[in-house]
C-alpha cells in the first residue's frame, strides 16, 4: 500500500452525559493510504459517524492524534485548522437536509470557494459549471433550487460541493444509504471515477457491507467504539477472522435463493455505551467468548498481510514480516 | 387445497393532487396462497406500499380504488371483496384476521402506554377476556416473539426498548389475534443487518407455527431471496415481472429486473468489475410515457415499446410485461 495520507493514533472521543461517560470512540488507530478508499463499517452505535467527524474536528476529539500529511490536526489552532480544512471535505447521508433550500445550486456549490476567498464571481461560476458536468449533471442546472432535483441528483450536488475546494481527503458518511439501488449504483460508480481522476483519498462510512466491499480498498470494522478488525477488503471479506465480522458478513441477505449458508445469528442488541462490557466489548454477544475475554482489552493479532484482528480467541501469526 | 388467501385482480388506484388525477396503480394482479410469502419488490414510487394500503383500506383521503377486486378469504372460508366492504366490516378484519407491520414501529406504538397495555388493548378489541387472562396472553405473545425477560418488559414504555425489540413488540401486536394474512411493509429496512437477520428468522418461525400468509413489501432483493416463495417486481405502479422465487433469480427476464440485480454490489463479485446501473430515474406519476413505463431507461426499447404492454405468460406462472424479454440464464459464480 502507498504511504498514508492520514494516520489515526489512539483517537478517543468521550461524551459526558447526566448518566455517565459515553466512550463513543475508544483508542482507535489506523492508517488511510493516499489515493485509497477506506470503508468504516459497524452497526448503529458503533461510533463510526463520531469517528468520521472527529477526524475533521467537526467534533473535538478527547485525545489522540490525527496526522494529516505530516501535521497533527488536533494540535492546530483555529487559523491552521481553517487552512487544513480546505483539503478535506464531508458528504452527508441526507442530501435534503444538508443542502440549504433557499440557495440556488450555484451558491450551494460555490459557498466554500467564497468562504475561502477563492476566485471572483465569474471564475466561481465557471468552476460550478465544470463541477456540475463532472458529477453528471448539466451546467444549466446551476440556477435551480435543491428541491427541484431527485434524491440521486441532490447527492450529486452534495458531491460537487465537496469537490469545489479540490480536497485531497473526503469523508462520505452513509452517502448512498438513502438512495434506491439503481440510483445508488450510479453514485457509487461516480465516486470510483472521481477517485481515479482526482486521486482522492476517502473514508467511506456505511452500514451496508456489500456496498463497502464494492467500493473500498481496505475495511475497518468497529464495534461499540473500538476497532475489532481491519485489513484489505478482499482478504477481510473472504476470511473474516473476528467473530463479530463473521457474524456481520453472514447476516447480509444475498440475492440468491438457492444459496446454502451457515449463519451466525447474534443474540440481543449492542450494549449501552454507558456500560460497555469489561475486556473485549463484543464478548456479551460473541459465540466464541471464554473467560479470558472478560479481562483486558484484546491486543491486535496479525492474521494476514496488513490484516489485524482484535480477538483473544484467534491464533495469529505474531511475527510481522 | 383451499383457494388463495388473497386474490388481487386488475387493481387500479388513483390519487387526486393539485386538481389532477394520477394513476398510482395500474392493473395490478397477484395471488397469495395459504401459508406462503409473496414479496412485492420495487424502488420508491413503484406502488408497492400503495398496494398494501389499498388492501388494508387505508389509502389516504385523496386516493381511491378506481377499479379491480381484492378478494380475501376469511378464516371461516367466506370470500369477500375488500374494495366493496363497508368500513365497519373492514375495521373488524383489520388487526384481527388481517394485520400489518411497518418499517417504523413507532408509527404503530403509542409512546404514552406500556407495551403490555397496548397489546392488551388490541386483544380487548377483538377478543373479550378478563384482565388476568389478558395479561397472561400478552406475556405469551412477548415470549413468542423472543423478548428476553418478557415479564419484566410488560410495563416498559416503547422508548425504553431498542429498535429490534420494538420491532418484536410490533410483531406481537400484529399477531396477537391470530391473523391469517400479515402485510409486512419494509419491516427490517431500518434495522442493522444483524438485527434484520434475527427478525427475518423470527418471522419465518412464526409463519411456520401459525400458518399465516405474508405479503412482504421490500426494496431489497437480498431479503426477497431469503423470505419469498413468489415474487412480483413492481415499477412505476405496475407489476413488470412475476414468478416463483427460484425462477425469478435464475431467469430474470424483464430488463428492469435485470437492471435491478445488476445494480446490487453482491459480495464476492469479480474484482474490478463495475456495477451496471440503470440510467436515469423513475418518471413522475403525472408524466408517465404512454407505453411501457420503463422504456425511457431501457437499452432494449424500440418503437414497439410505445404501445401499452400487459403481462403475458412465459410458462409455469412466470409472467412478464415486456416486448423484448431477456432470455439468457443468469450465471452464478
Automatic annotation (TrEMBL), chain A:
It is found in: Cell inner membrane. Keywords: ATP-binding, Nucleotide-binding, Transport. It is a peripheral membrane protein. GO terms for cellular component: plasma membrane. GO terms for biological process: peptide transport; transmembrane transport. Signal peptide: none annotated. GO terms for molecular function: ATP binding; ATP hydrolysis activity. Its main location: membrane. Residues 6-249 form the ABC transporter domain. Pfam families: ABC_tran (PF00005), oligo_HPY (PF08352). SUPFAM superfamilies: P-loop containing nucleoside triphosphate hydrolases. The keyword ATP-binding applies. SMART domains: AAA. InterPro entries: AAA+_ATPase, ABC_transp_ATP-bind, ABC_transporter-like_ATP-bd, ABC_transporter-like_CS, Oligopep_ABC_C, P-loop_NTPase. Belongs to the ABC transporter superfamily. NCBIfam families: oligo_HPY. This is ABC transporter ATP-binding protein. It comes from Paracoccus methylarcula.
From TrEMBL, chain B:
The keyword Transmembrane does not apply. CDD domains: ABC_NikE_OppD_transporters. One of its GO terms (molecular function) is ATP hydrolysis activity. Keywords: ATP-binding, Cell membrane, Membrane, Nucleotide-binding, Transport. It is a peripheral membrane protein. It is found in: Cell inner membrane. Its main location: membrane. Residues 6-261 form the ABC transporter domain. One of its GO terms (biological process) is peptide transport. Pfam families: ABC_tran (PF00005), oligo_HPY (PF08352). The keyword ATP-binding applies. It comes from the Bacteria. InterPro entries: AAA+_ATPase, ABC_Ni/Peptide_Import, ABC_transporter-like_ATP-bd, ABC_transporter-like_CS, Oligopep_ABC_C, P-loop_NTPase. One of its GO terms (cellular component) is plasma membrane. Belongs to the ABC transporter superfamily. This is ABC transporter ATP-binding protein. The gene is dppD.
